[in-house]
Amino acid sequence: MFEYALSFMIFLPILAGISILALPIGNKAARFSGGVVAMIVLLIGIELFLGFQGSGAMEFVENRAWVESLGIRYGLGVDGISLLVLMAGSVLFPMVFCILSIREKGFYGNLLITQGAMIGAICATDLILFYIFWEIMLLPIFFMIGIYGGPNRLPATLKITLYTISGSLLMLAGLVYVGVAHHEQFGFWTFDIIQLSSLELGGGYAVLAFFMMMIAFAIKIPLFPFHTWLPDAYTEAPNATTFVLSAIMAKIGVYGVIRFVVPVFELELARFAVLLSFAGVVGMIYCGLAAIAQKDLKRMLAFSSASHMGIIALGVFCMNTQALTGSLFQIAAHATSTGILFLFIGLMEERLQTREIAELGGIAYRAPIFATFFAIAMLASMGLPGTSGFIGEFLIILGAIKFSGFIGFLAGTSLIIGVCYMLWMFQRVFFEKPKEQTDKFQDLSLTEALTFLPVILLILAMGIFPQPFLKRIEPTVQQHIAAATNTAPNALASTARPRTSTPNYQKN
Amino acid sequence: MNDFLSLLPLIVICTGAILLMLLAAFEKSRLETAAHLSMGIFAVAFLVQLLVGGGPATAAYSDVFNGMLVVSDFTSAAGLIILACGFFTAMTSHSYFKVNLFCSLEFYAVMMFGACGMLLLTLSQELMTSFIALEIMSLAIYILVGYDRANVKGAEAVLKYLMLGAFAGAFFTMGSALIYGGVKSTKFIDIGTYCLSHSATSPLLLGGVFFIIVGLLFKAAAFPFHAWVIDVYDGASTPVTGFMATALKTAIFTVFANLLAQSSGLHGTWVTFLFYVSVFTMFGGNLIAIGQSNLKRMLAASGIVHSGYLLIALVAINTEQFTGSVIAYYLAAYAAGTLGMFAALAYLGGSGERRSTFDDFKGLAKVRPYSAAAITVFLLSMAGIPPTAGFMGKFYIITSAISAGEITLAVLGIVSSILSMWYYLRLVINMYFHDAVENFETDGSCFATAGTFFLAACVFILGVYPIVM
What we know:
The complex is a heterodimer of chains A (508) and B (469).
Chain A: H1 5-22, H2 27-51, E1 59-67, E2 72-78, H3 80-91, H4 93-99, H5 105-123, H6 127-148, H7 153-186, H8 193-196, H9 204-220, H10 229-236, H11 239-264, H12 266-293, H13 297-318, H14 321-352, H15 363-366, H16 368-382, H17 388-403, H18 405-430, H19 446-464, H20 467-485, H21 491-494
Helix pairs in contact in A: 1-2, 1-5, 2-3, 2-4, 2-5, 3-5, 3-11, 3-14, 3-20, 5-6, 5-11, 6-7, 7-9, 7-10, 9-11, 10-11, 10-13, 11-13, 11-14, 12-13, 12-18, 13-14, 13-17, 13-18, 14-16, 14-17, 14-19, 14-20, 16-18, 16-19, 17-18, 17-19
Chain B: H1 2-6, H2 8-24, H3 31-53, E1 62-64, E2 69-71, H4 73-99, H5 106-123, H6 127-145, H7 152-183, H8 188-197, H9 203-219, H10 227-235, H11 238-260, H12 264-290, H13 295-315, H14 325-348, H15 364-367, H16 369-383, H17 389-403, H18 407-432, H19 447-464
Antiparallel strand pairs in B: 1-2
């Protein structure tokens, strides 16, 4: 029954999106049909999550020849690494259709194409296929910001487009290098990620290719110092697009590192792990401090999101089971919490026409349900025990301390900074005296509350019962780490070659 | 018999051209008839090429006509591209000449003669045949460029092109003479064998090949012989520009690849030279394109850049197992995108091509969303964004470059395509992110519109099913 499920999840939204753009239908019909498509994708996603075996290998595999002369295949599959990212990509989209009111059909069309391409990028097991979906994903974002964005949308659009496209073309060079290297070592072409993990790379060109791939993903994450597009793009983008950018697209950057860089470039990653984790730590502290200084609520959240992405990326660079599991868990946790925070801010902006923190105040007295939901999402984002954010951050910091006590300590400070700006913002926006504008703030309507409720419950559920999620991730993570560090024999390593030098991350 | 069979597409086009010429003598015949007829002939020739080229009788590098011509899968693919370009150009011209009234019946005949020369050029395997084919093609193109006699820009364009083209032709003959002096033969294959048995750096051979390469680089608009291309493309009428940019380039690069693929000696001697030419072509073209405000001039400059990518493929040629698939695929992808762009410009430009700058296309998406979407597809393909054909083309070229050990060139190619985003995206931004200033009414026939959408579909189909590979 799951035979074509992944293809269906990819191409249903893409085709629906193109039809919405091309057919002469009304804006309301577009929103409705888009919502229905997103719901169908969600249902398939839940079905996949429940049917997932957690064996550590790829499940729901589809694999067909595509461009045979270069060994490019149409390969899809889900394992513990992609499962939660995939869930984030399918769970969060229906909310956008229910909540926010950009009343243009073109917007909904672009949104659906983004969703399909994202799911494609998450499920692809062939590097070229991944790259193709990765690029398709960027185009609708370009149009959504450029057409429907805020007053300074043009420079913001140009910035994000130039950044991301330069990144992806560098990535193209990197992955072609990997394919050619495989052809030279084994005599046949392939871009299949499991086959490629048995590559023996080395030398200057491998380092070059590694950095090309890393820069592409770092731009997307965004990792310090490639984060400068983020505040502008997040601020100018329409709220639904900011939501997509922060909740899912940034995660695919981290996911790409785990999926493609870790197994192929394990030597290079080991060489530069300290450098990269410093980039992660510096980014999270710097962006956290920048968030304190922001006056615009959305901009503050943008910096906070960048800061959290630094933690998630750090988890990957530490390269041990705890940290990597934490990263993958945190990807889902951060997607839900930050995602809905952006949606809340979108709602606030629709009702009050402002995002200036100074003009807000006292919302908690006027809109208790809104304030409660907001508080839960915010606490999750801060990493309070009992919420989804805690598990992930805890595991990452645990792993980071194993990796290096100093880096673990720095990562810990960034959490404290996070608590500072979040609580201070909450106090200014929700308590204090209601201002003239916020005095008539309407609480969530029943539909809105019901839309948010499942995600709020999910945040709590992931915090209180993380086991169903963790047990699906862990087997794959253990194999992945073992294959990359080659400390234990396993399915992946059995196809791998004997190594000359073995980096040992675990004892660092 | 086989020899004639493989020349059948050429014969069809030639006969068609003569028929059209005769038809033009009758006063009653109408321009539309000529357009329809030439479309039909191109279509028939395309089908013939498809049937003949794919047959088992023609193995790779089988010789035809006593080694004067060659028929392989590569030449047949190039022939298909040229014939398809001819077909779409005829289609575009039909709409274009509804609003621009300087056309006469002979236009289509001349265009078909040009296609004859191009087809012959792809097949040629010998320097004299190449020269004759080159001149047949060039003469036809000269006439087409200057077809609008009342247009000063066109007159300037044809003068420039004619003068410089004559130089290029002279270089080519000079090179042939020197090579004949050294090798005692003008066949590519003999030049290749000579290179292997003697030194490829003997003065006669070195000078001769240099002159020939200069002639070909000129026709391909590569650095440093690219300066004419901007004015000539701008001065020619839009369908002609489209034809020149695609079919002509296909013919030139096919014969270029056939020449270089003959021997590793020949290729090895010139690979460094071509390396630098390709780098300068890409970056020079990009710098010119970034500064343009007129679309046709921008496309001309971007054509230079694409020549640079094709030169990368020439650098990376594997002389032992040459199939030409990378070059053929890139040419097909490039042709689909570029022809589509020119077809769209032909019907959106209006009479006298009055809408031709970036600013004129502001807000097109609001008024004509489908045309804007098609143009976006072409631009994305030219920029190399998946899942379009242009991406696959670039991907193959980069892969072949890295396989050949030319990693620097591959990276520079990628940097150049990042730069090219600058001017491709500028048009997209103008079309989508601004309010409409015009309503882009068109009063031509719908042929160009249909061609545009068909080509947009082709861009995707070629991207998803890389047929040629």
